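In this supplementary section we document a worked example of the pipeline. Step one takes a protein sequence of length 580 as its only input; no multiple sequence alignment statistics are reported here. Step two produces a three-dimensional model, which step three serialises into structure tokens for compact storage. The input and output of this example are shown verbatim.
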Amino acid sequence: MKTKYRKITWLVVAASLGWWAGAGVDYLATHAAQEHATGHRTIDWPQWGGTPQHNNTPIGHDIPTEWNVGKFNYTTGEWDPKTAKNIKWVARLGSQTYGNAVVADGQVYVGTNNSGGWIERYPSDVDLGCLICFDTKDGKFLWQHSSEKLPTGRVHDWPLQGICCAPFVEGDRLWFVTSRGEVRCLDTKGFYDGENDGPYTAEEELLKESKKPYDLNKEADVVWVFDMMKELGISQHNMCSCSVTGAGDILFVNTSNGVDVEHNYIPAPDAPSFFAMDKNTGKVLWTDKSPGLNILHGQWSSPTYFELDGQAQVIFAGGDGWVYSFDPAGDGEGNSKLLWKFDANPKTSRWELGGRGTRNNIIATPVFCNDKLYVAVGQDPEHGEGIGHLWCIDPTKRGNVSPELAFNSADPTQEIPPKRVQAVVPEEGDLTRPNPNSAAIWHYSEVDQNGNDKIDFEETMHRSCGTVAIRDGILYIADFSGLFHCLDAETGKVNWTYDMLSAAWGSPLIVEDKVYIGDEDGEVAIFRHSADPEVAMEDGEPYYGTQDMGNSVYSTPIVADDVLYISNRTHLFAITPEGK
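The serialised model returned by step three reads:
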């Protein structure tokens, strides 16, 4: 990881700005005024990215750019609001929070661990994966779903990581993936409505039989459970983490099937990596086991759904670094129906343990916007920095739409199958050819912007676990090396970059004329939304400055009903003008 001594730099690509440099401020002001005039603000943000397309661009009004989180007793977790500014409420979370908040029907949900000790039967020293529900009015704790750790340990259920995904909420139902390999459907009202919504009634019975103190109103009301380890034979690596999405009655799930504890082999290569199920009953509709033996590490990306030219598509970003598009209906016989697949790594890139290689898997969620699909490659953040790739893909293509195809000199007419460690090994006679059916619209990795015939740190797209956010043809993405990139969404041309001097795990939020991004040092940088660096920044710093959250921000800021929600490692903050 680079240190805080890196120089803050930004790149001005004057030729690419053209008329925009002069017109940007007026356009943004007009755009914001139109939003205010229509009053069509985003009320709910009911899944990761808000919609199945996952572009984090809600409509909000008067979203603050200044706040003070106040002070905390980090032994007890108690909040002292005396010095707080623009904080509506604060809710305590666990000791490590990676789940992104979602908001629906007056409730906000966050995945975390159990260090907050919200329910009596599980004291704070009991390690759990927790999905916690709060009231959006005042941050009042409503209920918690508790996932006990698997006895197999960190190979399947890593200690203290909690629930790292976001739920999907629709009406009075919520679906999410537990860290222990289950898909669960919950009643959003918990037991406050006086009903056990079953038919999964075992939860209430287990509580009664456990002889542990409990308050039923603080417990999640479980409707059904699907155990992927038991029913599908998966072996997730470290944990299951997939922010599910749906279309109609279909739910789409990445199983997180991965490598063994030593990272040497895949215990369940024939188990599904991706599947569709009936969201009302939990019945499996179809499955797909790609990439099988070519899984590099784990599979923690989340599915994306969209419709284009009359064809619905669901996107699975695989643990082999390939992007797969399936027909959401399957083939009608319990199997997937592949539309296209795309290799997001250079064919000669090589996978090496501990992040020492150049081949990457995909943790980020693909984003669909303006008939294009955007996705970045990366690795487990513990693997450190490394070269990355950001792709813009044309989803109308079919078949193998990778930029290159792989062959071997022994039979240069026959395409060779994908290989796990290195797709093309020149020493073994392997070779590549450009793919005439490539769906790559543009690719961003290393660009000599200043023309000095070398690639500087600020001219590199590094590994990323974050998604893009796009509005008005402008794309933003953060990488794990701490660079925040602004590109032209149509061409991939770099507008500017900013060095946050700290790793970024999350994704950008665009709302009104503002762009928010958090980092591992606990700061949220706030730029003005513009392709012109002189508009986005002032004297080389974010136009609206940075705000200190008091602890690492691994999550993504969201806006719902004109409230800005940001969670750091230990607390969830609802931020509004004057805290109202």
